Amino acid sequence: DAGVTQSPTHLIKTRGQHVTLRCSPISGHKSVSWYQQVLGQGPQFIFQYYEKEERGRGNFPDRFSARQFPNYSSELNVNALLLGDSALYLCASSLSHGGRNQPQHFGDGTRLSIL
Amino acid sequence: TQLLEQSPQFLSIQEGENLTVYCNSSSVFSSLQWYRQEPGEGPVLLVTVVTGGEVKKLKRLTFQFGDARKDSSLHITAAQPGDTGLYLCAGRNSGNTPLVFGKGTRLSVIA
């Protein structure tokens, strides 16, 4: 079975541009979460979606937005890119929303570089 | 804001040595997870602990959740080069809250 897949794997943009990152969860998983991992840091939570609704939002500016589609895949959009947005963007899927024992399965991320 | 502090930040040891890495917080967590991340890949879940004082073993890896559910440790016995990677701890303060990650411990095991 395929794991969490993210595209593209690498992306180079310039300041001010916008970007769309894509994520396909594991088959049967209905919850998708997005994280930003800056070099040398742990992942930082951006959004969680479950059943196409936003269920959680981290401390990120409104330039960051996301959505989840009927097939449970998800997109993360970032507008007006800044140099500080350079990071590895990780998507994680889980069967459902919530539950302290709920494992999250991560994709290999999209490496975004802003010039 | 809940914070998870991991120590040490970096660790370089010889093959066959034992090591322990720590994950500490001033907050109580309902559950805590340990992940390992290798370059160019996403984090891979190693274990979830949910009960204070719980100990779980995964081959040469032993995970412990503190009695007060504020801290955790990961002990590796007879480390091997394949154990090299970034070890991340992540906690939830309740079932529906997002994971909070520490900054990780970067382990290098030299043959």
Provide a descriptive summary of the structure in words.
The complex is a heterodimer of chains A (115) and B (111). Helices cover 0% and strands 50% of the residues of chain A. Chain A has strands at residues 5-7, 10-13, 19-24, 31-37, 44-50, 53-57, 64-68, 74-78, 87-94, 105-106, 110-114. Chain B has 111 residues and is an all-beta fold. Chain B has strands at 5-7, 10-14, 19-24, 31-37, 44-49, 55-58, 61-65, 71-76, 85-92, 100-101, 105-110. The A-B interface holds A 4, 33, 35, 40-45, 48, 55-56, 58, 90, 92, 97-109 and B 4, 6, 30-31, 33, 35, 40-45, 48, 50, 88, 90, 92, 94-104.
Question: What tags apply to this protein structure?
Answer:
heterodimer; A: 115 residues; mainly beta; seven-stranded mixed β-sheet; four-stranded antiparallel β-sheet; globular; B: 111 residues; six-stranded mixed β-sheet; five-stranded antiparallel β-sheet; 11 strands; 52% strand
